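User: quick one, fold this
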Amino acid sequence: MKRIPLTVIATLLSLSAWAQPKTDSLLEALIRKHASPLLQHILQYPDSFRYQLIYTQIDRDKHNRPHFKQYYFHVDADNYFNPASTVKLPVAVMAMEKLHALHKRGLNIYTPMLTDSAYPGQVMVHTDSTARNGLPSVAHYIKKIFLVSDNNAYNRLYEFVGQQAIHESLWAKGYSQVRIVRRFMPLDEEGNRHTNPIRFMKGNRLIYAQPAAYCNLPFDFSKTILIGNAHWNRRDSLVQGPFDFTKQNNFPLEDIQHVLQSILFPKSVPKSQRFNLTKADYRFLYHYMSALPRESDFPKYDTVTYFDSFTKFFMFKANQGKIPPYIRVFNKTGWAFGFLTDAAYIVDFKHKVEFMLTGTVYVNRDGVLNDNRYEYETEGYPFFKEIGKTIYQYELERKRTYTPDLQDFAKVR
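Assistant:
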């Protein structure tokens, strides 16, 4: 028998290890120990439910500096899930970043932003009835993104930042697998490469004009991603075959967790991975990332539809749970095609507890996509509630060398 060189064996072993989902015994044992029959059922079928979880412990030192330790359960960047609205998180932040980079006098997040159109399928937006002054702005779009995950708000910021700049920025920060190539509106691949001309105005005075743009970056669509048994297409016809996610957005779970951490704790990541934001930017973001729909006057939301936990999956979303006043959740969720995802930093000011949870699950028993028949209420939200409660209870009992001072996050409420 021919001898295989040791270097080849080492390479094969490393590839094999790399291909395995990442799981830490602490997190898996903790979840399984307290799992209800429903959760046990989900955990039993990882291939069907496609779940992934990251639990981030935060320990403060004597100077109150946070230190992070991630624990994984079935995390695999090659196991695709549709990120849905979680892609709104980096796009919102990059819109703020771009305003600083432009260095235009009078241009900031509150400057009225008028979107024009220059390509088929694009929409023109010059007013916003939900804003106090009736005008759209980056600030107002960001508010709506975090309060209720507004799709149109994301679309407008996607157009302002531009598809090319989105990827150049994220790739430069090390997020090489992230792909944000779609708005949430009926446009094909080419249509999403084109972005609108935009004007920032102060009264009748033009502050800044951005021409229509086109992204010429090549994207790697070589890996075919097919999910499900059947799907409804754009013509409302049932197709007997899986849904093709090959050219959809992609945002691996570890990247979502890291982006959230870099926003909430910028000093915890290298400078090259931080977003270029001011203290005022961070305070604005933290306020609306944790705000509840009922706390907003502009927009004013119907609290029956947009209840407290409308966009807070971990611990609270199931059964439209109330959030205690001493707990704040800084997060971004996403839901589409049967996939539910949440990346959250949960703070309990009363008991001095803080931790991060990032997770995704797929709930689609009939295997048909785009039929709006998913088990969000019966399986998805209970999954997040139970995982969140389990980790929260563990955190309440976990010993810390130093009690965290959480006033910086309390001040943004």
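User: anything notable?
Assistant: DSSP finds 13 helices and 15 strands in the chain.
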